[in-house]
Amino acid sequence: MVHFTAEEKAAIASLWAKVNVDVAGGEILGRLLVVYPWTQRFFDNFGNLSSETAIMGNPKVKAHGKKVLTSFGNAVKHMDDLKGTFSQLSELHCDRLHVDPENFKLLGNMILIVLATQFSREFTPQMQAAWQKLTTAVANALAFKYH
Prior knowledge:
mainly alpha
């Protein structure tokens, strides 16, 4: 189990309160699909994913990105029980969707990049360290059912 200090929790919560999930979610998932094109195979029902422009403008990518980032918000609320918080999603992604658990780490990287881009001044090395710890812990929680 990962332990978050009071300072880390406060830093994460303060930045999360400023995140526009509608905008950031679509950008995060869009970047994942552009930078790691093999992840597109899980979204074959999303229509046109033929180019960066098509992906970043795709309403299904934006909607699912919002859903993903909204779910990630549960991590901010439940940092002390990430495995419990994500157990059903872990089971879904493992048993039904067969998502490579490495993709959760890649998604975490996209979250960090978008946060750093959108909040450059506030995304200090200390803030990055707290968020890196959280995204890694969430990726591990999502991969838990694979073990």
